[in-house]
Amino acid sequence: MRELSAEARLHFYARSLSRRSGTGIHAAALYGAFAVIAGILFGTLSVHPF
Q1: What is the spatial distance between Cα 42 and Cα 36, in angstroms, rounded to a whole number?
Q2: Helix/strand/coil (H/E/C) assignment for every residue in 18-33
Q3: Contact status, residue 12 vs residue 4, Cβ threshold 8 Å
Q4: 20 to 30 A from 2, CA-CA: which of 12, 18, 33, 42?
Q5: Is 5 left (phi over 0), alpha (psi -120 to 50) or beta?
Q6: pLDDT per residue over 4-46, tens digit each?
Q7: What is the torsion angle, in degrees rounded to the nearest 10, for the CA atoms of residue 26, residue 28, residue 31 and residue 37?
Q8: How crowded is residue 20: how many other Cβ atoms within 10 Å of its Cβ?
Q9: CA 43/CA 16 separation, integer angstroms
Q10: Cα-to-chain-centroid distance, residue 38
């Protein structure tokens, strides 16, 4: 098997790192959206306008 050059290894590492951080960002956005929806829902249930 052929040895990878230092540049190829760095590129591969950067791509795998960005893929992992992208997944984390998507998960945080999803959980944040659920938190906003829950906050609005519980906030409107606790307010009695009439």
Answers
A1: 10
A2: HHHHHHHHHHHHHHHH
A3: yes
A4: 18
A5: beta
A6: 677 877 877 777 766 666 778 889 999 999 999 999 988 887 7
A7: -90
A8: 10
A9: 40
A10: 19
